[in-house]
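S1.2 Input.
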Amino acid sequence: MKLSVPGRVTATAVVATVSLLAGGSIAGAAPAGQPAVAAAPDIPVANVKAHLTQLQSIATANGGNRAHGRAGYKASLDYVKAKLDAAGFTTTVQQFTSSGRTGYNLIADWPGGDTSQVVMSGSHLDSVTAGAGINDNGSGSAAVLETALAVSRAGYHPTKHLRFAWWGAEELGLVGSRYYVNRLSTTDRSRISGYLNFDMIGSPNPGYFVYDDDPAIEKTFQTYYAGLGVPTEIETEGDGRSDHAPFKNAGVPVGGLFSGADYVKTAAQAAKWGGTAGLAFDRCYHSSCDTTANINDTALDRNSDAVAYAVWELSR
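S1.3 Output.
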């Protein structure tokens, strides 16, 4: 998640290699006579953590970070892309420049589904220069990746079209996602049924926060957590500070999940979620200690399953 310093960075766009996107209402059942869609699979947290281990190894081998314009970011993108290509996705790399360095977005489309109605899920893949960025935002990136791979393993054929994205240069001011959205035609934007954003979902002292932007998407996540008996709160700490913002500003319905950054957990929150009151949700936010040791497995597991639940439910 980027620092809340508006207008810090202006991106100079260079190359766009994508021609994308599609929309319709986020709600809606399958047409009459169409077979019921299977329930979302459980996402193995061990698989998600395996991706985090790989991202940590990439950072360690590349100066300790996976930041925009650095070798660690490109290696992270190559890792994710290779997994998706092997699983049968159509992947596209979108290139841009910011702060004099080359950045990349990765877009992955699952074949099939109504391309006039796209359900899109995304996360930023870059870290800050201070560290490996395993919670911020390896956690969201790994959960979205594993959900995409679960789509492939299940041979899922939803009514709507599925698209997944990993954004570059979020930490410099939402540069990659803004670049993507700004290059969509009005028609292409209207074809996106919803954009789901996952930025920090494994915080070590976690909360369970749901974006309150689009009511249908919000209700989907709330329904999932109600089924677990886990109370949620409206997400306010990161409002407008992550990659959903360019989509929302363009009129696309958005939603997402968040487990907390440098805000301090209250006594009331600790009473309902556990953890430690008076400490930050993530004391390693934007720091060198944001490593694989900086992850709460329960939060990562629950949120990863919630990602898949929403993708399945909203694409029926």
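S1.4 Remarks. The beta strands are 11-15, 90-98, 101-110, 114-124, 160-167, 192-198, 209-210, 233-234, 254-258.
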